[in-house]
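Q: Structure tokens for this one, please.
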Amino acid sequence: MYYLRISDLSRLLSGGQCKAIGYKSPKKVPEREPLPPLWLDPPEASFRLGDVRLTGNASVRAAIAARAWAENAADPTTLSDLVMAIPSSLDRISLVEAGRSWRRGIHTHVTFELDIAPDPLYNRITQNMAAHNESIGVFADLADSKQFNSKPGDVRAALTPFLANTSVGVGNYKWMLYGDDDTVFYLNNVLELVQGLDHNMPYLITDHVWWPDHRDGRDHFIHANRRAPRCLPCNYRDPLAANKSLVQGQFAAVPACPCTPQVLCEVDNVGAFNRGGCGFNYFHPGNWYFLHGGAGAIISSGLMRQNAFEEVKDYILSHKFTSGDSMFTQVVHDVIHVLPTDPGYGFFRPHIRMFDPGWRGEIARGPEDEQTSDLGNDPGGIIER
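A: Here is the predicted structure, written as tokens:
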């Protein structure tokens, strides 16, 4: 797993909303086995991204994979190639500070709602910025309205990756980690995941995506939902693929470079797209089809290179959204024309999700919503397993 929410851990440690599960004697933990090869071995080929039109064609994928392997062999991705983009607010500075321990070694860009120099909270975060390799962006809260019907800081949350990209410079990093201010990434595992991928390819990587299920004549908004349309990484392979069937109802994802709506439309097995023009039948990206911000995502510099900040900002301010993570997903689709890529390891292993701590069963709205039944998904269950 690559992610854990501080709020979930704090709730568990404090005893809130958790049932005692009893003491179990510790088990001997076996040495970790290396991940199976999820990408083809580097073929003997050379390739430049601009030489061909980006497509899902297998030969093109092989050429792109060759380039990625060659570049990674010559210049392996390290912590200095990562950037963390965090949307926050001044009243949540403690969470930002708490994450400094695990973010050591990478640059972090945090966006707040204001930068009033005399404000003690602002001074508190800025006085140690240099020591912790941090930069700060500012985007004010927007008043609640029919257009932005969730939280005043949602627009800031959606713009944070683009603000970070502008601040750091797209040529100064390879991969951006995007998550809430209580989201934790395990950096060594992140490095292992991206080593076989081309950071110049437009990638939005996560396996925790919202998607509605139709039951009882109603839509049930579920995350993470294995029915959500998504791709697999470029030239992905898995030793289980030959003899392992998909979970019933799971989207039949395929490798793609990059993950475009056209690629997903061709393999759609859940009725997400209309067959006439490959448009979305109902759940357009951003409308209950979006990455879960609390679980986070990994964004390639190649994706961020495809946009201009002012274009993105103007788009967001002229549309209606549900939340910050839905805004971001819709912008990536409508402006950049890319959809999520599943990292792949859990695709044929339904008990594994790489951007989630492992809540069991279906989650309607989310375990963070105290008034919502989570069908047995509790922090104690995670520890018990």
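A few notes: Confidence is low (pLDDT under 50) at residues 1-56, 360-385. Residues 92 and 260 are 36 Å apart (CA to CA).
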